[in-house]
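Protocol step 4 of 5: obtain the predicted structure for the target chain.
Materials: sequence only (see below). No template structures provided, no constraints applied. The aim of this step is simply to have a reference model before the mutagenesis design in step 5. Sequence pasted as it appears in the construct record:
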Amino acid sequence: MIWGKTFVELLVCTGFLCSAVAEEPVGARVESIFSAVADGKSPGVAVLIRKNGGTLFQHGYGVRELRTGARIDEHTDFRLASVTKQFTAMTTMLLVRDGKLRYDESLTDLFPDFPAYGRSITIRHLLTHTSGLPDYEDLMDEVGKKRGATWTASHQIQDREVLALLKQQVSGKFAPGTSWAYSNSGYVLLGLIDAEVSGEPFSQVLKERIFGPLHMSNTLAYVSGKNTVPERAYGHEKDGNEFVETDQSPTSATLGDGGVYSNLLDLGKWDAALENHILLSESEMKAALTAVKLADGSEPHWPVAPGDDNLNPGAPVRYGFGWFLDPYEGRARMWHTGTTVGFRNAIERFTAERLTIIVLCNRSDLDANKLALQAAAMLRPQ
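Step 4 output (structure tokens):
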């Protein structure tokens, strides 16, 4: 854990006019939020808080797997689920910058055999969840009903199979750009597109374009049988009073929408790269941090009908490229959550405050974003 003396040193080096006596209780209160959620025998949580370019708080609670009792720490790799989308968006933006892609390219430009409904779906639509693509999870269910169970936790759907399912459709859920609906399908396709134009697997694209340059040495897109997750956290769910390992689902093998594993140390490097514009300049990053508008200029809303990926049915939504941009209690932020079987994650970046809070959980009974916002409340500017 980092606070107390290290925190005071941080205050001095960043020019804060605060005293150790005034600030140390803040660290203690942040500690109290997370120490209560996991003991030494349960799956738990890893927490990173960065402020003004330095680490303010970093700690792990609980175990990364029940079989060995190995403890969670800053090296523990969690499945990020949809937090992955910011990395997929970044690789796409880098390819656009390099002239290998254009935001206005359509699915039929990139996949000539894609059905006609893809002719008006662009890269920009995919990035901003305005494509109207059908949900591949729903299509899996339809195929399962027709042919029997096809995909399981041990026989998982692959990216190319997602593309094949989408090619079997004749229309989307709505005309591209006319509405907004969170789309894992869109980000699976972005991963495939990035791989196609780069001439190598998406896992390698991520390594060469992001993880390698930023020295995120233990971050990877996991491909079963081809690479190994170091110091891996396994996902868990609660069954009564007991935890059971529930680490994989039929959709756990797709990459662009949720396949990255990472840890606190590497995500701290990612946060620093975003703040200091290491991969893209401030002007090049601007598109990712501009909330999408619909084709008629109106503000998009979450779908009215509740659903697993529908966080706020019917409410307005601000989304850029791989980031939600809704303010929180008047505080500017860019943020994303990640939810999959056995894992709950959140990254909250309060950009004007130079404050980032990352919470990674390897158990499904915790609300990572709620915990992150509790910590944010304690660190609100006075």
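Step 4 remarks: Confidence is low (pLDDT under 50) at residues 3-24. The beta strands are 45-51, 54-61, 78-79, 220-221, 236-239, 242-245, 260-262, 334-340, 343-350, 355-361.
Proceed to step 5.
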